[in-house]
Design brief:
The chain has eight helices and ten strands. By secondary structure, the chain is of the alpha/beta class. The chain starts with 6 loop residues before the first strand and ends with a helix.
Length: 239
């Protein structure tokens, strides 16, 4: 299948899982440059496995993943990152023994060229006064901002986020939403986010993909993607 110039990510017939368990089962979709896409579904339906498969942490058993016209199905995570896929996992996985500054600079280590350091601090001014503080001493919300900032230091073209608002106070959730909207609307970054907070998603996305049993059962776009009642009706069928 040929993909259009606007298509950034294409997933075709993807199956993957852990050990003898298949979690994703012949899953497929395409995402265009600049889209803001939510991934929804109940626990165990394959959301995090999808993210980990996209970054190469869970190998594909069948199917393919194409990014910017290149088949990356067999690429290791670091190669996918170098091509422009950034990932902020659930739990953030910042290095708590390093300072905020050191965590940020680590995010650029594999990406030569002009630094994104000042741009990231402009996006997350809350981090400026914390640069010399150990990451272990940050609140959960501050750690999430740091994880996002570290990822953006690598200049991703596609940003994957797994539960970015989990356990975070509402004020920082609002800040994260505004920053993500700015990245998508003003800078053209493509964003795919796994999230349980429907209010957060409905304010931001232009598309919601709903999973059941490792397959896409609904792909809501435009106004439908922000219609909470419609989303909830699909989720009620996704058990």
């Amino acid at each position: 299948m040929s993909i259009s110039a606007a298509t950034q990510l294409e997933v075709t017939g993807l199956s993957s899982g852990y050990g003898g368990i298949t979690v994703l089962n012949n899953l497929g979709f395409e995402i265009s440059k600049g889209e803001f896409v939510g991934i929804l579904g109940h626990n165990g339906m394959g959301k995090t496995t999808l993210m980990r498969s996209l970054i190469g942490a869970v190998p594909a058993r069948l199917g393919s993943i194409t990014f910017l016209g290149t088949d990356i199905t067999g690429f290791p995570p670091h190669k996918r990152n170098q091509l422009g896929i950034g990932y902020v996992p659930q739990g953030r996985e910042i290095i708590k023994g390093l300072s905020v500054r050191e965590n940020l600079l680590l995010g650029q280590a594999a990406h030569p060229g002009p630094s994104e350091y000042n741009t990231v601090l402009d996006l997350f001014p809350e981090l400026v006064e914390l640069l010399d503080r150990p990451a272990s001493r940050l609140s959960g919300g501050q750690q999430q901002l740091l994880a996002l900032g570290r990822c953006l230091m690598g200049k991703p073209k596609l940003l994957l986020l797994d539960e970015p608002t989990e356990g975070i106070q509402p004020s920082i959730v609002s800040d994260i939403g505004k920053t993500l909207s700015q990245l998508c609307d003003e800078l053209g970054l493509t964003i795919v986010v796994v999230e349980q907070n429907l209010d957060f998603l409905c304010r931001l996305v232009n598309r919601n993909i709903i999973l059941r049993g490792g397959k896409v059962i609904a792909d809501l776009q435009g106004p439908d993607a922000r219609d909470r009642a419609l989303i909830e009706s699909h989720l009620s069928l996704a058990h």
